[in-house]
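Exam prep: given the inputs below (a chain plus zinc ion), describe the expected output before reading on.
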Amino acid sequence: MTYAFNLEWDELPEELREEKIRQYILSGDKRDCWECDGTGETGGKCCKACNGSGQVDPDPDDLHEQEEAEEDIKAHFPIYF
Ligand SMILES: [Zn+2]
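Solution:
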């Protein structure tokens, strides 16, 4: 039996990387609302996207957030494991 211990992010199976990226995004901070730029208002009215809070939950399906998360994880890998 061979034990393999991977310390390179790029060598991890894609499924595992996707799962880790997802977890990372979901556990991250809320983000400024894209609709109102974090002000909580659009055109003087309460912003519907964030209900006036100016912040929205992170979105693991957002490609841009995925890229950001992957860069972050890569930079600190394997600390997040
Ligand atoms: Zn908003």
